[in-house]
Amino acid sequence: MVITSVIQYGLVLGIYSSEKDEGAAQFTSAGDAFDRLVSGKLRELLSVCGPPLKKGKTRVFHGLHQDFPSVVVVGLGKKDAGVNDHENWNEDKENIRAAVAVGCRQIQDLEIPCVEVDPCGDAQAAAEGAVLGLHEYNELKQKKKPVITPQLHGSAEREAWQKGVTYAEGQNLARYLMEAPANYITPIKFAEHIEQKLRNFSTVKVHIRAESWIATQQMGAFLSVAKGSAEPPVFLEINYAGGANTNDSPLVFVGKGVTFDSGGISLKPSSGMDAMRADMGGAATVCSAIVTAAALNLPLNIIGLAPLCENMPSGKANKPGDVVRAKNGKTIQVDNTDAEGRLLLADALCYAHNFNPRAIVNAATLTGAMDVALGSAATGVFTNSPWLWSHLYEASIVTGDRVWRMPLFEHYTKQVTDCPLADLSNIGKYSRAGGACTAAAFLKEFVTAPHWAHLDIVGVMSNKDEVPYLRKGMAGRPTRTLVEFAARLSQDSRNTK
Ligand code: BES
Ligand code: ZN
Ligand code: ZN
Description:
Helix content: 25-40%
Keywords: Acetylation, Aminopeptidase, Cytoplasm, Hydrolase, Magnesium, Manganese, Metal-binding, Phosphoprotein, Protease, Zinc
Bound molecules: ligand BES, zinc ion
Radius of gyration: 24 Å
CATH topology of the largest domain: Aminopeptidase
GO molecular function: manganese ion binding; metalloaminopeptidase activity
Low-confidence stretches: 1-5
EC number: 3.4.11.1, 3.4.11.5, 3.4.13.23
GO cellular component, one term: cytoplasm
Number of domains: 2
Distance between the termini: 67 Å
Number of strands: 22
CATH architecture of the largest domain: 3-Layer(aba) Sandwich
Largest sheet: 9 strands, mixed
CATH class of the largest domain: Alpha Beta
């Protein structure tokens, strides 16, 4: 074989499973076109080298065509599988994401610097699979994997491909911020990183508020957590004015931004504590969603709020039994200093009401109990609004980054309001029972807006091997669902007030 091109290109092609097991597999239109280009050789080779390719399985062919020295064919599963009503996601899209990710990684392992990707009939999903599947946090290693740039094969669906790249890059930004060590992503570094990403948008203003501003806002609950650390807190405020009218009620996103959660005086066990560098996952996903919304030029206004600090034990830290006062005047007994996220969010949620919000959506790595309940299958959503729920749910079917509704019963409220010294305790009185629900009930005490949703994202914070198109590590979920939700909201002109 003679390689004539200077730059080596790889090609990833999808192939559907046949309806019957023994039937011939079915090419995508890009696969068909390539097969014609090589005079039917691809079909021939595939048929002689074994049974049809199963979903996610690959075959590599070298030297078929001079422009593409290596071709990876990957199984897409059944064609036109549609929305799976048991799985609550669009199966075609999920299959494409997974297959393309596997194919692109194979090209990367072959150390080929460029890869063209079959759009597989849904270029957005294909781009997401490629860009999410290749992402890895490499920053601090001397030996890095080769960087490869996925490109669309052919010229159809260019816009959808670009949209997929933008969605995936948004999630990758959240993954980057979550994965990075806590001595690199401190509160101020987090804020500056986001500010830098938004610098070139004329539609965006970023305010990085210092400790003195937080104090004037009377955010006593947030400050009580922050004061335990030598690292100063930051309140990050983003204003994206993409709407037709700057006065249109905004969507307000709020994210928990604990850049490291040691537990404070209620210290966590040391095993696995390093994962607490991702305790700013709420802030990372909501801020990345706004960066993505700005890149997509979504026609709505969005406010992003992220209280950022560390939760550390020290002579200045909260002590169990301390009582602090939140922005709305409610007093909170800090019975466990490790339940710090709700303290930051209490103040940020009060502040969110200043914007006459169309909806408030907060995301937080709030409780280990959420992971116990749903694991990594879906983000838990606690909401007072069926309207908000339906938009989040519909968005998640498309993105495959699912949500599942959880209760906000009075039952749980009673367990946080029965408190010896203050209006509220920061833990439920039956300790671990329904931990995710008592945390949500606590947050509800700081919300008067009719359309509010709290997303507990602990279960989806990291990936082992559950999501096939994400490598092991911090997952940046559910950034794409937040973006898709915002996009849908921008299309919904219904007056919800
Ligand atoms: N940041 C943790 C939640 C968490 C747990 C995130 C595991 C990622 C992985 C949160 O601040 C916390 O510690 N919550 C406590 C609350 C408890 C003390 C009521 C928890 O879930 O144990
Ligand atoms: Zn904690
Ligand atoms: Zn925490």
